[in-house]
Design goal:
The protein is mostly helical and about 230 residues long. The chain is built from nine helices and two strands. It has one domain (about 1-90, about 110-220): 3 helical TM bundles of succinate and fumarate reductases (Up-down Bundle), CATH 1.20.1300. The longest helix is centred in the middle third of the chain and has 29 residues, at about 60-90.
Length: about 230
Amino acid sequence: MQNESKHCGWIQSTIGRKQLIALTGLGLSGFLVTHMLGNMLIFLGPQAYNEYSHALVSNHLLIFAEIGLVLMFLAHFVFALALSWSNNRARDFRYAMLPSGPKRTSWTQRTLWAQGLLILVFVILHLITFKYGSEYTVNYGQGEMRDLHKLVLEVFQDPRYVAWYVVALIVLAFHVAHGVGASLQTLGISHPRYAKGIKCASLLYAVVVIGGFVSQPLYVFFIHRG
């Protein structure tokens, strides 16, 4: 009972929520890398892309990974929103002018909650479009499998969807660029000597990962026209 009380107290505390947000954020950032690398197989052609997708969905452990990702995403979103709400309520008044100097918060920090809401909408639409989208099949001599490559080409022919996808991913890039560095700092990995290096590494990470994602729709729309 005492241990349960300690755990509840940690989660309810500001530092506990920040650490939980940091841990789930880093976990989701790690998932982004693997997902992006899988997407890069589109440059190797439909067979490589479809066989990778088929191997992924055929793995019996996938359901556990998906449940873990959903729980991680929900925990990150809910606790971040709760922390933002509690911070707003703690203020006796809103600043007439934004703080300047060391206390000044960036545009990215001030809009984290809005970024999170947009990313949530993007994830839901992304799942509806691709995971639960049109079912095409193909056979490379090993039995029928889903032709996800064909669906990707079909979806990314629509300029409206491409524009939405790119804008949402740019917002995600800002979120990740700030979040990775901030998460490491929250977890105690911080020192004035290498703080700038962590910030640069976080930015580079976001540019590489999100750049990989954005390259897929741009490649399909402008180069691979079906």
